[in-house]
Design brief:
alpha/beta, 12 helices, TIM Barrel, single chain
């Protein structure tokens, strides 16, 4: 009986130690509001119902509530003005050795053009109308047609327009050459400016980028699942696996409360290992990520934590986060 009591007390003590090591109640409340990452700046949002890998999203937008298009200078400016701390955008290499800021692998969905984005020069891409394909009523009306000519920027143009702002750049491939090319562009910038740039994309592209710029914060998409699984297995001890270091630690809002130490213990551990906690919108079981795009989802999150919130509607949640 005495041995059972000792064993029980030992288990209880161990459980208490794990709880204490992972409880944000003991970590205290952060005094800093969460950072806001504006996905593609400020642009039009769309329904995710029945969304496939190659589904055109421009022809399924919700009725427009603002005049901005994703991945444009104007959309980035509006996002920063709404409270974004970081703007995420997508890049493709062009045939003339530059980078175009555009999401889609082809230009067919959003523009009047045809073909693979990276098989065109930047001048060809800038001549297209990036608002051409948007419709909220099945093609009856196209509210942005004719308004997006020349609005596809080059990477250099974006960085010059916002010299003191933070960015998260998405390489849209797993191409080693592309990772090296982007590293050449960012590596030519002053050291302090380089610190304001984070990059994510295919694992091989990220490895090439990281090899060229060892101090950079990168996220290889092939590391996301291993990171989460290893932290789920070991995070109770406070250990941060190698896959989760010097990167972005992305958690859906509906899974986040179950992560060891969420929010403040987790964000502290990640920060000590060069990483940033990023909370996405709820995961519905599909492969498509959502953002914290409405106040209902925002209210599920802690009012204060030392991490970041991923959003497609910084115009909606930015003022609410800043006011907290």
């Amino acid at each position: 009986m005495r041995k059972r009591t000792i064993a029980f007390l030992g288990i209880l003590a161990a459980a208490g130690a794990v709880w204490a090591a992972n409880s944000s109640l003991l970590a205290g409340q952060s005094e800093r509001r969460p950072m806001l990452i504006a996905h593609r700046g400020l642009g039009q949002t769309y329904s995710h119902v029945g969304l496939g890998r190659d589904t055109c999203t421009a022809d399924r937008i919700y009725p427009p509530e603002h005049a901005y298009l994703e991945n444009t200078i104007a959309g980035f400016k509006a996002a920063f003005e709404a409270g974004a701390d970081i703007v995420e955008f997508d890049v493709h290499p062009t045939t003339d050795g530059q980078f175009a800021v555009f999401h889609d692998w082809t230009v067919d969905c959003r523009t009047e053009g045809k073909g693979v984005t990276r098989e065109k020069s930047l001048a060809e891409l800038k001549a297209l109308d990036v608002g051409y394909g948007y419709t909220a009523d099945g093609g009856k009306t196209f509210p942005f047609r004719g308004k997006g000519v020349g609005l596809m920027p080059g990477l250099d143009e974006v960085l010059a327009a916002f010299p003191d702002r933070r960015f998260l750049i998405n390489i849209k491939s797993d191409d080693i050459t592309e990772g090296s090319l982007l590293a050449n562009v960012i590596g030519a910038m002053p050291a302090e400016r380089q610190k304001s740039i984070m990059v994510y994309g295919g694992g091989k592209a990220m490895q090439a980028y990281k090899t060229a710029l060892p101090e950079a914060v990168v996220l290889g998409t092939d590391r996301v699942i291993p990171c989460l699984l290893r932290y789920a297995a070991l995070g109770w001890s406070g250990h941060v696996p190698a896959d989760c270091r010097n990167t972005l630690f992305m958690l859906p809002a509906n899974y986040a409360p179950f992560a060891w130490g969420f929010p403040n213990r987790l964000s502290e551990r990640l920060a000590a290992n060069g990483s940033t906690l990023v909370v996405l919108g709820d995961n519905d079981g599909s492969r498509h990520s959502t953002g914290v795009d409405d106040l209902t989802t925002l209210e599920k999150l802690p009012a204060r934590f030392d991490g970041a919130i991923w959003t497609n509607r910084v115009d909606r949640i930015g003022p609410a986060v800043i006011a907290q």
